[in-house]
From TrEMBL, chains A, B:
Binds 1 Mg(2+) or Mn(2+) ion per subunit. It is an enzyme of class 1 (oxidoreductase). This is 3-isopropylmalate dehydrogenase. It comes from Streptomyces lonegramiae. Belongs to the isocitrate and isopropylmalate dehydrogenases family. LeuB type 2 subfamily. It comes from the Bacteria. PANTHER family: D-MALATE DEHYDROGENASE [DECARBOXYLATING]. Keywords: Amino-acid biosynthesis, Branched-chain amino acid biosynthesis, Cytoplasm, Leucine biosynthesis, Magnesium, Manganese, Metal-binding, NAD, Oxidoreductase. One of its GO terms (molecular function) is 3-isopropylmalate dehydrogenase activity.
C-alpha cells in the first residue's frame, strides 16, 4: 500500500497557523489506501533563540528520509536579518538541490487584484533555485570603514542553467499555449546573460512546438502590470525570479494565495513546498492568516508525487471557495475547514 | 550674460523624434537673456554600423565641454545586444560619474494607469548609477562548453554608497513628507546589504527630520502596485533601481512619461538627461512617440542647472496638457508644439 512520508516545518509566525490547515486538507483529499506519515521538525526563530542552531546536520540527514517537505514560513524580527533565511531556508534549497523553484500565478475569480480591468492571468514562473546571486559568494574588505568594498558574485553554470531551462521548456510544452519567456538582463549582465541566452536557444531546438520570447527584467515588470496575459511559462534566474514572483503574487490577488514548490526533479532529495508569503509577525496569532497559499502548495506537492487527480481537486476546491465566499472575514481555521470539506465532499 | 552649452545625443529610433521636441520646449521656456548653444553628436546604431565606433575618446573629451547632455535613446535590433548599451550609454554614466540616477514618478491627472482606484503616486527613485552589478566585473570560463561558469560581480564601495545615500537624504529632507526608503535584499545579499544598511543608518543620523524605512526589493514591488502612495524618496542600487523604475513608470501611466537625470552632483562632469524609455524601433518614424518624457527630462536638466522657475513651468505645462487633452491621438510634433506654446504663454 502506498504512503507519503512527509516532513513538516511549520517555522515562524503564521507558518505555525497555516501548516495545520495544509495538513488538514491533505488528509482530507488523500485516497483511503494512502497512509500519511508526518514528522514535525522544530526549526526557526524559537529554536535559534534556545540553542543557537538553524539547521543542524542531524536534522538535515533526517529530512532526507522523507518523500517531501511542507514548510510554513521562516523569519522573525527578533533574529538578525539573514540568519534564518540563509542558515535554514536557503540551506535547504541548496543542499537538497531544489533547482526548480516553481511559482504558478493565477487570477482566481472573485479575488481582489490591484489591476484595473482584471486581465486573464495564468502563468508559471520557473525560478532557478541553486545558483545566481544567491550563492553567498563575494565578501567585504575593510568592513565598516570608509574604504569598504563589498561584493556579491552571481555564479551561473551551464550545468545549472541548462537543467532548469530544459525543465521550463518541458513545462511549457505540456501547457495549451506552449510559450516560454526567458527573463534576464543580457544587455548589462553580459557574461551570465550570454550563458542563459545561448542555452535557452540551444535547448529550444529540442522543443520546436514551444514559442519563445525574451524580455529584459525591467521590461518584464512593465508587462506584469500592463499585459500579464502575455505570459505562459517564464524561466529566469534566482534573484529575478524572487522579484518577479512577489510582483506576480501582488497582481493576482496577493501573497495570501501564492504557492510554491522547491523541486529537485531528479528525486535524489525531497522537494519542499511552501507558500511564497513570509511569517507575517504583525498578524501572527490573530487567526487572520489565509491558509490558501499553503493549501495550494500542498496541491503542488501532490502533483510532484504523482497524485494528479488529488492536486486537481484541491485547485478546484480553492477556486470554488474563492468564488463563493461572502464578505464576512473568515479565520484561518474556518478557511481550512471549508477547503477540507470541499475536497472530501 | 548667461548661457547653456548643451550637448545633444538624439541616438536611435524615436530618440531622433523626441529630442527635437525637448529642444523646442527648452528654447521656448528659457528667459530672453539666456543663450542656448547646442552641439549635436552623431552616436548610436548608425554610427556604429558605419565606423564600428560607440563612443570615441575625442567625442568623450568634447562632451566634457558642456553644461549638460540631452540624450534621446540608444539601441537598435540591428546591433548585437549590449554593444551600444555598454559601449555608449553606460560608458557615459560611468566616465562622467553620474552616481545619482534620478527618476521621479508621478501619476498625473487624466493619464491611464493599470492600477485600479488610481492611488496618489508622487515619489522619486534615487538609483545609484556607477557601481553594483553594472560594473561589468565578472567573466566566463570555458565559454560555450557544457562546463561553462559565468559570473557577474556586484561591486559596492562605502565611497559610492555613502555619496548616493547622502544625496537621497538631502532630497527627502527637501520634500514635504521627508521620508526615505532603502530598498535592497539584505537578507540574501548580505555583504553588499550590510554595507548599504550600515551607511543608510549612519548617514541618517545627519538627517533626524527624515523618517526612514527599509524594504526588501521583492516586497517593494508588491507595494509599488498595492500601496505606491507609501513612497516618497527611495534609494537603491543600480540594478534594483533599473527594475523598480520601469515598474514605477508602468504604474504611473507608462514609460512615455518617465523622465530621468544621470547626475554628477559635484559638477566635475556634465550631467545627462534622458527619458527612461528606449528607442522603440517598432514605432520609430510613425510620429506616434510621446515626447513628454523627454520634455520632463528637460525640466530636470533646468532644475539641475538652477533654473527652478523654468523647470516648474514645464511641469505645470505637462500637467495641464495631460489634463486637458482630448481623445484624438496627437503626433510627436503636435505634443511638442502644445507644450512649447504652454511654457511660453
Ligand atoms: C526569505 C527569502 C530568503 C526568500 C528568497 O529570497 O528566496 C523569499 O523571498 C522567497 O521568495 O522565498
Ligand atoms: C538600456 C539599459 C542599459 C538601461 C539600464 O539598464 O540602465 C535602461 O534600462 C535604463 O534604465 O536606463
Amino acid at each position: 500500500s502506498r504512503s507519503i512520508r512527509l516532513a513538516v516545518i511549520p517555522g515562524d509566525g503564521i507558518g505555525q497557523e497555516v501548516v495545520p490547515q495544509g495538513l488538514k486538507v491533505l488528509s482530507a483529499v488523500l485516497p483511503q489506501g494512502v497512509k500519511l506519515e508526518t514528522q514535525e521538525y522544530d526549526l526557526g526563530a524559537r529554536r535559534w533563540h534556545v540553542t543557537g542552531e538553524t539547521l543542524p546536520d542531524a536534522e538535515l540527514e533526517s529530512l532526507k528520509n522523507h518523500d517531501a517537505i511542507l514548510l510554513g514560513a521562516i523569519g522573525d524580527p527578533s533574529v538578525p536579518s539573514g540568519v534564518l533565511e540563509r542558515g535554514l531556508l536557503l540551506k535547504l534549497r541548496f543542499v537538497f538541490d531544489h533547482y526548480v523553484n516553481l511559482r504558478p500565478s493565477k487570477l482566481f475569480p472573485n479575488t481582489a487584484t490591484p489591476l484595473a480591468g482584471r486581465p486573464d492571468i495564468d502563468f508559471v514562473v520557473v525560478r532557478e533555485g541553486t545558483e545566481g546571486p544567491y550563492t553567498g559568494n563575494g565578501g567585504s574588505l575593510r568592513t565598516g570603514t570608509p574604504a569598504e568594498v563589498a561584493t556579491e558574485v552571481s555564479v551561473n553554470t551551464a550545468y545549472g542553467v541548462e537543467r532548469v531551462v530544459r525543465d521550463a521548456y518541458a513545462r511549457a510544452a505540456a501547457r495549451p499555449r506552449k510559450k516560454l519567456t526567458l527573463v534576464h538582463k543580457t544587455n548589462v549582465l553580459a557574461h551570465a546573460g550570454h550563458l542563459w541566452k545561448n542555452i535557452f536557444d540551444k535547448v529550444g531546438a529540442e522543443f520546436p512546438e514551444v514559442t519563445t520570447d525574451y524580455l529584459h527584467v525591467d521590461a518584464a515588470t512593465i508587462f506584469f502590470v500592463t499585459q500579464p496575459e502575455r505570459f505562459d511559462v517564464i524561466v529566469t534566474d534566482n534573484l529575478f525570479g524572487d522579484i518577479l514572483t512577489d510582483l506576480a503574487a501582488a497582481v493576482t490577488g496577493g501573497i495570501g494565495l501564492a504557492a510554491s514548490g522547491n523541486i529537485n526533479p531528479s528525486g535524489t532529495f525531497p522537494s519542499m513546498f511552501e507558500p511564497v508569503h513570509g511569517s507575517a509577525p504583525d498578524i501572527a496569532g490573530t487567526g487572520k492568516a489565509d491558509p490558501t497559499a499553503t493549501v495550494l502548495s500542498v496541491a503542488l506537492l501532490l502533483q510532484h508525487l504523482g497524485y494528479e487527480a488529488e492536486a486537481a481537486r484541491i485547485e478546484t476546491a480553492v477556486a470554488q471557495d474563492l468564488a463563493e465566499r461572502g464578505d464576512t472575514p473568515r479565520t484561518t481555521d474556518e478557511i481550512g475547514d471549508a477547503l477540507a470539506a470541499r475536497v472530501s465532499g
